[in-house]
Amino acid sequence: MTLRLKSILADAAIKQGALAKAVGLSRPALNALINHNQLPRGLARDSVDRLITQYLKNHGADYGRWNEEEPPCANTAAPDSPQLTTTDEEEQMLLRKHSLTPQARRHFQLAGDPFADPVTAEEVFLSSDIRYVRESVYQTARHGGFIAVVGESGSGKSTLREELTDRIHREEVPIILIEPYVLAMESNDQVGKTLKSQHIAESIMAGVSPLTKLKNSPEQRFKQLHEALRDSARAGHSHALLIEEAHALPLATLKHLKRFRELKDGLRPLLSVILIGQPELGAKLSEHNPEVREVVQRIEVITMQPLDSELENYLSFRFKRLGMPLNKIIETAAIEALRKKLTPARGVGSLLYPQAIHNALAAAMNRAADLGAPVVSKQLVEAA
């Protein structure tokens, strides 16, 4: 499979990044599929294969037998274990965690960590794209809807959820936010625990009517749930079900969420649904996936964008929190070097998300402190 798909993409001048985006996979997930014939847990292989086949077909590529296993060479012994190799694209994605050292903080005279998670609403950076996602989530929670927010690891999805909770409490809005625990959630019961509709129902009842004893019969329990939501809505509450790590939801649960959304009091919907997950969630919710067509036709999918045009504003915001002008930390040329470092070539796409930016700049600042450099230069960014 590896050589065949790579060859097909090369012959058709299709970039791997373009294919990953089109089928809703993260770039590491597509690399794992191409190089090691593996997909992350929770993704239906048949669905992904169909999406790739359709994309190849639409772009005039030779799609006929791309996903068949390639026979081993007759005079080559099979390896004892898979030989894992890392492509340049994968290397770019594997940005190791870097934290500012105490020496670097003293060197740059920083009273705190500029890359620390925000603890107040004023510490949340809001670009136009982030503001749109934030408001979409808030309006869905307040007025109803069915949306999925998809973003790369480190793009700020958890901050989005935390800020929503903080805003509801801060503005004293009558929204009951229901968040099922997903600590051990996996897409199948062989590797973890799947989140089923009954677990969601229990979470809703715990949030809406915590003192009510649940009925034993599933039919009676769901009727009880409907009545509890209705009574709570008539008392003036809105209800929002928010599921983080939603890329690990099994397809059956995704389909059941549509039925939760259909609970109404007359014409008034009783429950909005907000899903937050990595790009694999986008693959599950692809319009080419017939297994969840009822959901796809009703859900709005929003993708969190990288900070491409907002890099300097974002960095200025981060250091302004500590009373430090950005030009005391990093040269203008170094900012462009950082942008280039996190925008790999060959169509892989931008990695300019908060966590990757933090890791790359923290590494350069640590090196600058070790060398005694007054500010981060272009060369230090490139070498870090």
List the defining traits of the structure above.
3 domains; Rossmann fold; 434 Repressor (Amino-terminal Domain); five-stranded parallel β-sheet; about 375 residues; alpha/beta
Task: Give a brief outline of the structure.
The protein has helices at about 1-10, 15-25, 25-35, 45-60, 90-95, 100-105, 130-145, 155-170, 195-210, 220-235, 250-260, 280-285, 295, 310-320, 330-340, 355-370, 380-384, and strands spanning about 145-150, 175-180, 240-245, 265, 270, 270-275, 300-305.
Describe what you observe in this structure:
The structure is a single chain. The protein has 384 residues and is an alpha/beta fold. The protein folds into 3 domains: 70 residues, 434 Repressor (Amino-terminal Domain), CATH 1.10.260; 101 residues; 176 residues, P-loop containing nucleotide triphosphate hydrolases (Rossmann fold, 3-Layer(aba) Sandwich), CATH 3.40.50.300. It is built from 17 helices and 7 strands. Strands 2-3-6-1-7 form a 5-stranded parallel sheet, with helices on both faces. A two-stranded antiparallel sheet has the order 4-5. Strand 4 and strand 5 form a beta hairpin. Helix 1 packs across helix 3 and helix 9 runs parallel beside helix 10. The longest helix has 18 residues. The protein is flat, with a radius of gyration of 24 Å. About 6% of the residues have low confidence.
Protein topology:
Blueprint: H1 2-11, H2 16-23, H3 27-36, H4 45-58, H5 88-93, H6 102-107, H7 128-143, E1 146-150, H8 157-170, E2 175-178, H9 197-208, H10 218-234, E3 238-244, H11 251-261, E4 264-265, E5 268-269, E6 272-277, H12 279-284, H13 293-296, E7 300-303, H14 311-320, H15 332-341, H16 354-371, H17 378-383
Parallel strand pairs: 1-6, 1-7, 2-3, 3-6
Antiparallel strand pairs: 4-5
